[in-house]
């Protein structure tokens, strides 16, 4: 494991969860980035400024980065900015997660407490696999996806770039979820989901216009 100091991008809400997981696995978390310095600083991190500002103090070769942004679009923007600057965005995996050694995983991902990921799954970049969710064998999770707490993806499910799978939802084996789709909490998905669709319910149906 690298001994570089770690900068957390996004230090509220979801960022607290990422910080706790980083601490659990021994990462050298020392700093944070936010639009403004925060009064609430539970992990006693040093403020470096905002990563999009010209005077941001984080562009130093002794730093690596982790992502604490829950919003898919903002998290992906931050990931791309850090990579353009030539810095490393590392994965954070809580020590309680059960992750097969036989998966393929990119960078900038967060795997939360009590997650299960089974063999031959593919996780691309800057994804959130949130608390207690299950990613079964041969699933493919494209970049910038958020799998919310308690969601279950049966075998060979594909989730497209930038999509959100809501808490406690279930996706039938072999289905394809398109890009930038939203699956509401508690949904049971029995059919493929097209790009940009918003679906919910049991069985899940597309939200009507208007």
Tell the overall outline.
Answer: globular
Helix content: 10-25%
Low-pLDDT regions: none
Give the spatial strand order of the biggest sheet. 5-8-11-14-17-20-22-23
Report the sheet with the most strands, covering strand number, pairing sense and barrel closure.
8 strands, mixed
Proportion of residues in extended strands: 25-35%
Structural class: alpha/beta
Sequence of secondary-structure elements: EHEEEHEEEEEEEEEEEEEEEEEEE
Number of helices: 2
Tell me the distance between the termini. 51 Å
Number-wise, the strands total 23
Radius of gyration: 17 Å
Estimate the mean pLDDT confidence.
95
Structure report:
This protein has helices spanning 14-24, 72-84, and strands at residues 5-9, 29-33, 46-47, 63-67, 92-93, 98-99, 104-105, 110-111, 116-117, 122-123, 128-129, 134-135, 140-141, 146-147, 152-153, 158-159, 164-165, 170-171, 176-177, 182-183, 188-189, 198-200, 205-206. By secondary structure, it is an alpha/beta fold. The strands form four sheets. An eight-stranded mixed sheet has the order 5-8-11-14-17-20-22-23, with helices on one face. Strands 6-9-12-15-18-21 form a six-stranded parallel sheet, with no helix packed on it. Helix 1 links the parallel strand 1 and strand 2 (29-33). The mean pLDDT is 95.
Summary of the model, kept short:
This protein is of the alpha/beta class and 210 residues long. It has two helices and 23 strands.
Features:
11% helix; alpha/beta; 2 helices; 23 strands; 210 residues
